[in-house]
Amino acid sequence: MPLELHDDSATLIGVVTVDEVEQLTGWLRAAQKPKVSLRRCNHLHTGALQALLLFRPKISSAPKDTFLASQVLPLLNGSSGLASRQGSEPP
């Protein structure tokens, strides 16, 4: 099962597909202070990503997956990674 949902914490596991988006969104809507662990997630459907971006839960554990850690986690933490590159290239 790709989603382990508890009162205010969730663990996303393996491949989170479009089939889990509705359940994840409902949980995010209902949780008081949602925390999401991505440690065991290795694929996140764009619908699930959009739900996480909309509700902005606290990410309690970073993903081990290289792509998710380097490209998706900064978006979920509110950083596009552009600030670190600003000023490094001439205008």
What does this protein structure show overall?
By secondary structure, this protein is an alpha/beta fold. The protein has helices spanning 21-30, 46-55, 66-76; strands at residues 3-5, 9-12, 14-16, 35-37, 41-44, 58-61. Helix 1 (21-30) packs parallel to helix 2 (46-55). The N and C termini lie far apart (48 Å).
Task: Give unreliable regions as ranges.
Answer: 82-91
In total, the number of strands is 6
Helix content: 25-40%
Secondary-structure class:
alpha/beta
Distance between the termini: 48 Å
What does this entry show, briefly?
This protein has three helices and six strands. By secondary structure, it is α/β, with parallel strands linked by helices. A four-stranded mixed sheet has the order 1-2-4-6, with no helix packed on it.
Map the helices and strands.
Layout lengths: L2 E3 L3 E4 L1 E3 L4 H10 L4 E3 L3 E4 L1 H10 L2 E4 L4 H11 L15
Parallel strand pairs: 2-4, 3-5, 4-6
Antiparallel strand pairs: 1-2
Helix pairs in contact: 1-2
For this entry, give a set of tags.
disordered C terminus; alpha/beta; 6 strands; 91 residues; single chain; 4-stranded mixed sheet; globular; two-stranded parallel ribbon
